[in-house]
Amino acid sequence: MNGLEVGQVVAERAFPITRDSLVRYAGASGDFNPIHYRDDVAAAVGLPGVLGHGMLTMGFAVQPVVDWLGSDGWVSDYQVRFTRPVVVDAQAGAVVTVTATVGAIDEAGARIDLSAVFDDQTVLGKAQVRVTPLA
Asked: Given a cut of 80, is residue 1 above it in pLDDT?
């Protein structure tokens, strides 16, 4: 991957999430677990509030890398660990900020390390995207 350097930030973006976003994602994914849209159910199971879907957060986090790659390459591997939930307030919503940084480069492509932060805390741990350039 020509022109890349380890430590280089290749993409940054903030993703606002609203309760409407959660309902739309539930419809698209089929995940209608009420912890993702009902405060009373979330509280009843001991959660701090309605939670964003983990897979929605994971999808948001990789999108800046996909946009940065464009038609020059493809994502050949993507892995994360969920470390904290994203609590989506009924009024204020939530914002997840993603930073994509080159973590390693080799002959096959590059590893892009993602930082996904909500409320000043990391929500995805060891979030790494393997990108491969097109020949």
From this structure: no
Cα separation, 32 vs 35, in Å, equals 8
* Helices (H) then strands (E): counts for the chain: 3, 6
How far apart (Å, rounded) are the C-alpha atoms in residues 86 and 123? 7
Please provide the average confidence, as pLDDT, over all residues in the chain: 96
Q: Which residues, at least 6 apart from 82, have a Cβ–Cβ distance to it below 8 Å?
A: 54, 57, 58, 123, 124, 125
pTM, two decimal places: 0.92
Residue type, 112: I
DSSP 34: G
pLDDT digits (tens, 9 = 90+) for 21-39: 999 999 999 999 999 999 9
What topology is assigned to 9-17+53-133 in CATH?
Thiol Ester Dehydrase; Chain A (3.10.129)
β-bridge pairing 94-106 and 109-118: antiparallel
User: Which amino acid is residue 25, in one-letter code?
Assistant: Y
Mark 34-48 as b/e (b = at least 16 C-beta within 10 Å). ebbbeeeebeeeeee
